[in-house]
Each structure stands twice: as structure tokens, then as C-alpha cells.
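residues and backbone:
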Amino acid sequence: MPINITMPALSPTMEEGNLAKWLVKEGDKVSPGDVIAEIETDKATMEVEAVDEGTVAKLVVPAGTEGVKVNALIAVLAEEGEDAGAAAKGGDAAPKAAEPKAEPAKKPETDAAPAAAATPAKADTPKAAPVANSGGRAFASPLARRIAKDAGIDVSAVAGSGPKGRVVKVDVEAAIAGGGAKAAAAARAPAAAASAPKPMSDDAVLKLFEEGSYELIPHDNMRKTIARRLVEAKSTIPHFYLTLDCELDALLALRKQLNDAAPTRKTEKGEEPAYKLSVNDLIIKAMAMALVAVPDANASWTEGGMLKHKHADVGVAVSIPGGLITPIVRKAEAKTLSAISNEMKDLAARARNRKLKPEEYQGGTTAVSNLGMFGIKDFAAVINPPHATILAVGAGEERAVVKNGEVKVATVMSVTLSTDHRAVDGALGAELLGAFKRYVENPMGMLV
């Protein structure tokens, strides 16, 4: 029988992707592990491998197609000995046969409710052997998801009667007919409406400007994801800000000394230093060491409890064309400055080419955002869930400081720590920022 290939979920947050390129054509034989396509997500371009053996019977989604939903059919394989033409037709029919026609979902709820009540046998059937969802990702048909969304029902709370516990249309209709889910949704609706005012519509915004005075550029997946996550972060995380000044002279002197002492190595370009430390490399290390010194701040908030992390995995904001990505230096507290420096150069280069793997930019326990190279004196960064902190780093500049009653000139850098007040309160955040300042102003402590 035909084997359906669907759009894979290449990250936990992926909802759709762009099918950038097919690396096979119809008639090609593939084996498990063969790379068959390139998929563009919001953060990276990734290769997709075949998991079954067979012959490519049909490429359903053309190369270059944007916005392909996760689990949508993209290709069909014919098994060994199976006619490719028949498999292609079977593959086309398979997703349609698996779902009831979508037309009834368009009917008003007043029409759907009597229909459910008029056929109690159908409504009772799935209750015979339902499979309850375990609280993870809910497996449901697209039609069932759409009906549940329109009715305000959490599909993950619906017991599924489909194959392997999949939630199908009849399960959602039974939940609607039961009334409990609908009542709960109705009770939540006023609060949700009050807490989330609607933004201006696109038409309303466009009417504010003279026609022809602008160019409308559609959002790509990265910009959509950034917008969604920023709204989520600012609307769900109670941000709290702490600012501190750090003197950089000792750190700059150590950086110069270490760079001058760097051994050389042969490369294609000739003799080059084995490493070249930046100020940001030392900041990453100082932040990691500070989290080790103040372990209670190395945490993430969850509704069920506090996650206390055993290592300092520091994300570093990297600007790339069209957006921002935060590759992560794992276990930064245990790495040498030269290792951090070379790893960051590699991560940043691959980030700009959208070649990072999901595990290289997802997770982490904190983040650093440095705008000092742009001359920004100070700013406050938005926390990137699941982090509880992010450090915003400003430019180092010469300022007048008072030491022992005398005015002297020092290179000073302002940093602002944004904290999730649920996990890191003011006193704990101040302790963390104080530890960071000690490592910056006494950088030899990072070498021992």
C-alpha cells in the first residue's frame, strides 16, 4: 500500500514550514536515512530524511511552496513491487478517506447541535474505548482541531477514539454535546477578551497612510515567530529590571594579554592565531560563572515547579538577515575562554546562513544580548522563555569615576538584567548581577 510522507515537525514550536527543495524526483528509489528534501523553518534550513524504503510515486507539494502545515501530505512512496501510478492515486485518496468531509464544519453551531443530539449512537460510540491524552501534544485530525477551536474547546482534553487514540470529528462533537467543555470555554471567553484587546486590523492601519506612499512586505516565518514569542513573553512574564555599572579596564587588559599570547596555527589563509577573544566572550563566561555562584538564579519557572539547572547554558543573541536567533553555549561555566570564543564564531556564522540545528538554539538557562558595538549605552532586553533572565550589555565608554575621594577616568559598561519575577525576585537578581560584576572587574577569577 502507498506510504504517505508528511511535513515533519522539526522543532517543538514548528507549525508550518517552507518546502525549499526536493532532492529526489518521481521514480527515484529511496532507503531509510536518504536525504529527500530541504525544509525552511523560522530559524534554519534543515534536511529531511526518509524513514521508509520505496519508490517516489508522487511529489504532492512542489519545491518552493511556503507555509506548508505540519503533518500535511507532501509526497507518496510506493512499496517494493507496488505500481507507482496506483500508489500515487492511493496516496491522494488516503488523507481524504481518513477524514469526514469538511463541509459540515462550516454549518452554524445551532445546526450542528441538533444533528449530534439526533444521533446518540454515534455520540456514544467513542466513549466505549476512548484513549485519554496524556497531557503532551494532542493527536487530532485537522477537521477535529478546527471544530474544537471554533467551539473554544481544548482538543488535548478530549478523549480520542481514532487510530492510536487520535481525536476525530465525532469525539469533538460529543464533547460539544456534553456541554461541559463548552460551558468552560464560555466562562473563559469574557476574561480572555478583557485581557487581550484586539490590535488594529491591517485595513485600519493602511487607511492611515496615503496610497502609494508605502510598500507592503509580507512577513516571513521568522518574523512571525519572533512577533508571537515576544507578545507571549511580555504578556505572560512579569519582567523586573536591575541595572549596574561595571569597570572594564582589568578585563580589557586581560583580554589583550591573552590574545597576544595566543599560539598560531596553519590555515588556508596562512598563519593565524588559535583564538581571538572578544569582550563578549568574556561576558558569556562571567555570566555563566555568576550563575554557578548564585545557583538559585539559574532556574526556569513552570506552573508545576521550579526548574533548577545544573549547568549554565548561555544563549547569545545574534542578528541575522530578517530577524534574530539565540545560539547556545552549553555548559559555558566549564569551558575555557578560547573554547567559548571559537564556538561562538562557528555558531554565529552558521546562524547567519540558517544552518543551525534546533538543539543549538532551543533551551538554555539564560541569555546575553550585547548592543555595545552599536554604541548603545544601556537598554532592557525581553526574556526568551524558558529563560528566567537575560542580560542586556551596553557599550564600554570612558567615564569619570570617584576612587578614594579622587576623580579618575575608567572604562565603564552598563548592564541591565531582566528577570522573570516569578523565578528570580529583586534580591536574588541583585545577587546574581553583583556576582557578574565581580567576575568582570576581577577577570582572573574566570581562569582558575
Q: What stands out?
A: The mean pLDDT is 83. The chain has three domains: 3-98, 104-195, 225-446. The chain is about 35% helix and 25% strand. The first strand starts at residue 3 and ends at 6.
